[in-house]
Write a structure and sequence with these properties.
This protein is of the alpha/beta class and 258 residues long. The chain has a single domain (1-258), classed as Vaccinia Virus protein VP39 (Rossmann fold, 3-Layer(aba) Sandwich), CATH 3.40.50. 41% of the residues lie in helices and 20% in strands. It has helices spanning 26-40, 44-51, 56-65, 84-92, 105-114, 152-162, 180-202, 206-216, 221-230, and strands spanning 74-78, 97-102, 120-124, 137-143, 163-174, 233-241, 246-253. Strands 3-2-1-4-5-7-6 form a 7-stranded mixed sheet, sandwiched between helices. It starts with 25 loop residues before the first helix and ends in a 5-residue tail after the last strand.
Length: 258
């Protein structure tokens, strides 16, 4: 099937023929993300549970449980989706302020309907340009966020800018192993599993096969840690699940050198 572009260079709105590998430029990937997640928003919660065989909620709870104690932190949940992690943060920090940010209005609408907390709000913003004040945030979180960032370096720089000194960030995502053989095995497993659910729910295998494609453009575990350190953070720890396919990773804003 031929896919035409609009005048601004973005893929035309037609059948869901999104080819992730064609969207390596940050602006095109941002457009791709917004279009994809708008389409999947109504079934997103079901799909994340199905793809993880029911483990997604437990992984997100582990992520939040790993965060440090804090009396009243300002927490920002990047690419918050339908609000799973944001609402867990609200439970953990009842005196805190929780801000969930996402590029997709459809996801945020669901998050707002689910929330029963007065100290949580959701806003439509780009995780690479949050508009928040410098050194204003205590905790940054995200689930399936860094891998979907239009520019990983830009988002890491933004996280460091908004975090206070000593502030922490914690993320849950698919983990790309080092080594070509392991990467190839993971790719085909995720490609097959995502394609099955894409066909079952949308009649299009590419809808969730994008997960495997996105990992091709994402650093492996070693490279990701290197990128995080180079952005000015100290890696505090990690934990892998699902035979190493999933990982939580926590890091802290380092003090300026000199």
């Amino acid at each position: 099937m031929e896919e035409k572009d609009t005048a601004d260079g973005h893929p035309a709105q037609g059948r869901f023929a999104l080819r992730f590998q064609e969207h390596r430029e940050p602006e095109k990937k941002r457009f791709y993300n917004e279009r994809l997640f708008t389409a999947v928003a109504p079934r997103y919660d079901f799909v994340t549970r199905a793809l993880s065989l029911g483990r997604d909620a437990a992984w997100k709870r582990r992520l939040v449980e790993s965060l440090p104690s804090h009396a009243a932190p300002f927490c920002v949940d990047l690419a918050c989706g339908t609000g799973d992690v944001s609402l867990l943060l609200a439970e953990k920090y009842p005196r805190g302020t929780i801000l969930g940010l996402d590029l997709t209005r459809g996801m945020l609408d669901i998050a707002e309907r689910r929330s029963r907390f007065a100290h949580v709000r959701f806003e439509q913003r780009d995780m690479g340009a949050t508009g928040l004040d410098d050194s204003s945030v205590d905790i940054v979180t995200g689930s399936y966020a860094l891998r979907n960032a239009p520019s990983l370096g830009l988002v890491l720089t933004e996280i460091r800018r908004v975090l206070r000194r000593g502030g922490v960030a914690a993320f849950l995502d698919f983990s790309r192993p080092p080594g070509k053989a392991a990467q190839l095995m993971e790719y085909w497993l995720l490609k097959a599993w995502g394609s099955f659910w894409g066909l079952a729910l949308h009649g299009n295998a590419e809808v969730y096969a994008y997960i495997a494609e996105s990992l091709r453009e994402f650093p492996d575990r070693i490279g990701l840690r290197r990128s995080i350190r180079e952005a000015g953070f100290e890696v505090l720890g990690s934990r892998r699940f699902y035979l190493g396919v999933m990982e939580t990773l926590m890091f802290r804003k380092s003090s300026p050198v000199g």
